[in-house]
Batch of 4 targets.
Target 1
Amino acid sequence: MDFAQLWHDLAAFVAGTPRHGLLLATLAAVVLGMAGGLVGRISPPLGRLVRLGSTLVLGGIFVLVVLQLARFDPHFDMALPGIGLPEQRVAGGETHIPLSDDGHFWVRARVNGVPASFLVDTGATLTTLNAETARKAGLEPREGGLPVMMQTANGPVSAQIGTIGELSFGSVTARGLDAAIAPNIGPANVLGMNLLSRLRGWRVENNVMILEPHHPQSKESAAPAD
């Protein structure tokens, strides 16, 4: 076997692979498992130890992937509201939201006191809740209101309009916020421009979305604010 050529080909493959941490870790774990098989021919105990290390790494990667995907499932909102998302923080009255690994900005919020994750979509006019989040938050369609048609990745869907009593995250609190209740949008919730337009301003700097409310809120504050 030409190990020099094998190493060259492997290096070329890695160089052409997107620099994603989990992907590179998976590749390293697979290579480690293959190395364990080769080492095991010479020293079975050492080979088993190397393969065990590979298995543990792959198991850890699997757990991380599950936690990343958990935010798309509303059943995880109550148990795991913050796992799998970058840490949002408040600095100088502004809420800072780092870009997630999936290329989106995600907010960990409370809707009428119920934990829920929201994808920030500056192209969406209305904030939108899936049916499960709306049910948990006690959000009901407005009486006498007409359904609206919304365009999603899966095509147009019909949604009812309700009013959120309070939606809060970081230093931001919005009360009396209109929201669409769309049972066919999937498990994700969407934070739309009708909330962002209430802010003093928002911007993106170095892959961090910065939201500046007119009246920054804290957990201890009960004063109405947007």
Note: The longest strand covers residues 155-169.
Target 2
Amino acid sequence: MKKLLYLLVLLFAVTILQAQNCKVYIPHEKGTKLELTSYDKKGQKESKTTQELINVEEKDGGTHYTVHIKSFDAGDEMVHEGDAKYKCVGNTFYLDMNSFVNQEQMKAYENMDVKVETDEIDIPSKYSVGQSLKDGKINMIISGGPMDMSFSVELKNRKVEAEEDITTKAGTFKCVKISQDVVTKSFVSMTIQSVEWYSEGVGVVKNETYRKGKLMGYSELTAITKY
């Protein structure tokens, strides 16, 4: 009996340890709010986004997170708000592909029927510089307007580039640098290159987008508020 009890306690301890090994690339505490500001290639402000962790829930063998996102234009007028979902299962953190969709553009379809299919992307807790990561995709079929249309965003050639310290107005953060190709397909197709710096317990600290090797714009974490 004592041996069985010991084995059960050991199994429970191993399960807890495995859960703790999952690195979370969003804030840990509910109510934490991040502010990210986007700029054009000349450093002029284009938009702002706030992200607030509003729910943490244990289910389906993992920890699930809900982040409420508000998007603002250059004049700080809100243009969109909605929720993004993230989760930690085992030793892998899964990101919401919706964050790669232009939400201001999607506002034009808010009164239409939008069917969404996604392939999740992830960041493993254990990675090595130079490692290739899983591709991701989001497909949308939009109906209810003058004509049906399809829209997709695919992330390809994802790769761990480096571990770097990044300093912004919000502070200095230890980050993993990930590069990827972002392929958008609608009436026309466009491919851009994206580089993102993720910090554990925070999320995206910096993002840069390029087309044909030229900088298009960038975003930086400009504030963190904890309640």
Note: The chain has one domain: 2-225.
Target 3
Amino acid sequence: MNLFVCIDDTDNFDSIGTGELLENMMGEAAVRGLAKAGFTVRYQLFIHEDIPYTSHNSSMCCTAETEDLSAFTVFCEKYLEENSADGSDPGLCILTDSPSLDYSALISFGKRAQNEVLTKDDAYKTAAEFGSGLHLSEHGGTGGGIIGALAGAALRAGREEGRIKGKLQPLPNKTDWTLSSFAAVYGVERFTDENGSEITDDLPLKFVHPTKLLYSCGRITSVIIKENGTYMPKPKIKKNKEKNQ
């Protein structure tokens, strides 16, 4: 069975981030033979004074495969209860990935969560209307993380754009890159410029700065910029974090 697994609001200022917690949880699930996970996508949700969050109000969602949904769900619930940070409000969403399911109402909820303040009641109502194929649960504190967990799973199901967790590092002593060789090494499926226009030519590439990938149009995407006549993956610029509660 294919799934989308999303968690939200599991951290505090001193803990590991929600994305790292999700990857740790899925790593433990793999060790136990409960599931195999795909890459994790970060979805930015609405920033507003009425929404409690640690630093950026984002949810984290990965894909997964399991042969025992019940055992996997129980494991995830217990893992969040035992490993989420003090003071957090963890939420879990496990959504079946199937072409036979209509995700339109869920996707609408996810997009609303990126632009307005929603409540737990909104999340539970949306989940109930979707019916079977969706698990939504809270695991500490106010349980408000279910809002972001449902939103993130919905956005991933809709193949909406998000940022793939982690960054790519240049390979030492390799300078003869092209878009096709970069794609082969790093699993990139699509290239665009900064305006979102797709690049199909096999351009020469200079890769000297770390970069991050996007999940866009349902594909792993690299944004390519042109600087001083040279094409390169858009560098990941380190920014100072501003923590807001």
Note: The chain has two domains: 2-162, 177-233.
Target 4
Amino acid sequence: MEHTDLKIKQQLFNYLTKYITDNKKRKFEEYITHRTKYLTVVLEDIFQPHNASAVLRTCDCFGIQDIHIIENRNKYTLNPDVALGASKWINLIKYNKEENNTGYCLEHLRKSGYRIIATTPHKDSTMLEDLSLKGKMALLFGTELEGLSNLAIELADEYVKIPMYGFTESLNISVSAAIALFHLSEKLRRSNVKWQLTEEEIIDTKLKWARSVVKKAGLLEKEFMNKLT
């Protein structure tokens, strides 16, 4: 059944790509080879939209497919001028329906096999360059002023920090994320770790991309499914 579902998804993607330029199709096939879910990002209660949107843009640039947004006190609002369309190419997963969204998100990720790694200079943290690649990684970033919540720090499996040599104690969140994601994504690509997307993740991701660029994709998809019945 799974193989059948995968086949139908591939057929649907092929159907939608009839309405996509050859240049865009080439980019889909090229960029999908660089995508990963082995490394993911978690943003907890970010209240400055331009900073969070800059993180989304960074994730797209470095091939990070999933971004998890925890909304406790602050609701995340996309800033299109900063994100520059990045939300079309990545998966944005929001957590805002539970009494304890932080706990729910981190437990969900842990059950999915992720190590919860809090970015903070205030614990017995591992330096970024020394962080192990063994096991999927969820990098956790907190608010601009207060950092991560006590609960997030308590629930983390590991702690990581970026080495700094100046008087200022911390970096802007978007800068921190860019440094961490560049370093770790490059380190992953040079490693023997199987960081690439699975076959199903590849077709699901390409379908998302196709739906985001094809006009009236929903109607075309309905038309395709009607032909199967």
Note: The beta strands are 39-44, 66-70, 91-95, 114-119, 126-127, 136-141, 158-161.
